[in-house]
Amino acid sequence: MLPSSMDPNTPESIDLKKDQGLAVRWNDGTSSYFPIAYLRRMSPSADMKQLRADMDTNPLTVLPRGAGNNGITATDAELVGNYAIRILFSDGHKTGLYAWSYLREIDPDRTRLHDETRATENPSDRQSHPGHGNAGTDGA
In Å, how far are 17, 28, 49, 53, 54 from 61, measured between CA atoms? Predict the structure, then answer.
């Protein structure tokens, strides 16, 4: 059990299955599940942020060795204060701190729901709402 907080971005419990994924039950009663390969790909480390930015601008970006995430597992994890978890991966990556708020932001279910909502919107609706479609970007 993690420290109690009323902040909805604070987990009530976490369960890491090293070869599968990270399950989080949040204080607001919702749950999230993050496959290990997804966590590795979405690492908040500087090198992975840069790689994702490069891939957004150039779909032919050459991936670094081991970036395919095939067969990747978590080898260990540690809580960092009351605000994050650090996950160590089988490819040696260990520099990403997954803040609770970042995990909420990249929740695969929330991301998929957002994408599905955008796909069903009328394009003219998006134009009438300045900034729509920039959710989840922080300009970094």
Answer: 31, 39, 14, 10, 7
CA dist., res. 10 & res. 100, Å (int)? 6
Burial of 39 (0-12, 13-18, 19+ CB in 10 A): buried
Q: What is the pLDDT of residue 49?
A: 80
The token duo for 13 is: 């419990």
22 exposure class (CB count in 10 Å sphere: 0-12, 13-18, 19+): buried
Residue 12 has what pLDDT?
95
